[in-house]
Every structure is written in structure tokens, then in C-alpha cells.
Design goal:
Helices cover about 20% and strands about 30% of the residues. By secondary structure, it is an alpha+beta fold. The structure holds zinc ion (ZN).
Length: about 160
């Protein structure tokens, strides 16, 4: 695992230390940890949100083969209905420090919010890569994430009456 000196981002995958996003993607060799399917539901089946922005997609948790850093990936595919149209393929690699952090972010973030996540992440648009977002302290505060989830979904999380 790469050391960042100040320790604040020491848990993040080494690719977040590479300035050139195309180069970072080239150096990313990952293995599958677990999948989050194409939607996020409560145990009673209540839908919280879909896990992709466009027509099709999913989220998975990946582990970097070089440094063991974890990455939460959202894949979205847009299928053009017109002859002249072009299909779109969108990938967002969000760095996480633990499986628990990934689980909570998966619940908290709807598809668009995932894409627009303020923490710097690797974004792929039709296999062209760029960095998106700003550097922020990591790991995230787990209790803070839980509070944000409780607040965001308070209507859905409350026990149903009657
Ligand atoms: Zn790595």
C-alpha cells in the first residue's frame, strides 16, 4: 500500500497517487470482492435506489492486486435507440478504506450522487479516463455515514404503521 506521508489517505489504492488518469487506469489491476447487484433494497424489498445512471448497470467492490486497496465501482450503460446514436459506457471508481465504508456508501449514494461524489475518483467515459472531484480526508467517518443514511431515508426506514 502506498504511503502518502501525511497518513490521511494511506488506506487508498495506489492509483490515487498517479496524476495522469489514463496511466492510473492502466495500472489498475483488480479482483472481484463482491457485487451489489443493480439496485439497493431494504430487507423487506423497499427500493432505495438503482445502482446505475442509465439503462443498465451495477456496482461491485474490487480489490487492487498491487496494494490491496478497495474500490467501489459503478458501471452504467446507455443504449441508443436511434441509428445515428452512440451507446455510452460510464465507469466511476470510488476509493474506499473498508468493506463497511463501501456498504454504507452503496446505500447512501443514488446513481447520480455516486457519479458526482465529491471525493476524487477515477471516471471513465467510453474508455477515456479523467479524475473527478476533490481530495478529501479519508477514511470517512462511519458514524457520520450512518447518520446521513438515517436522515436521507427516514421515511422509508421507519416501521410501517398498521
Ligand atoms: Zn492499488
Amino acid at each position: 500500500m502506498k504511503e502518502y506521508g501525511e497518513g490521511i489517505n494511506a488506506c487508498l489504492c495506489h492509483i490515487y497517487g498517479i496524476e495522469d488518469a489514463e496511466e492510473a487506469y492502466k495500472q489498475l489491476e483488480s479482483e472481484f470482492v463482491k457485487g451489489y447487484c443493480d439496485e439497493t433494497k431494504l430487507s423487506d424489498g423497499t427500493l432505495l435506489h438503482y445502482n446505475s445512471v442509465w439503462d443498465d448497470g451495477y456496482r461491485v467492490l474490487l480489490r487492487c492486486k498491487h496494494c490491496r486497496g478497495l474500490l467501489l465501482l459503478q458501471v452504467s450503460t446507455y443504449t441508443s435507440m436511434s441509428d445515428e446514436g452512440h451507446d455510452g459506457h460510464y465507469t466511476d471508481y470510488l476509493p474506499v478504506c473498508s468493506e463497511e465504508e463501501a456498504d454504507l456508501l452503496n446505500i447512501l449514494l443514488g446513481p447520480g450522487e455516486f457519479e458526482e461524489h465529491p471525493f476524487r475518483h477515477l471516471r471513465g467515459t467510453n474508455h477515456k479516463y479523467c479524475w473527478y472531484g476533490k481530495e478529501q480526508p479519508h477514511p470517512m467517518d462511519i458514524e457520520e455515514l450512518k447518520r446521513a443514511i438515517a436522515e436521507k431515508y427516514k421515511d422509508k426506514l421507519q416501521p410501517k404503521k398498521g
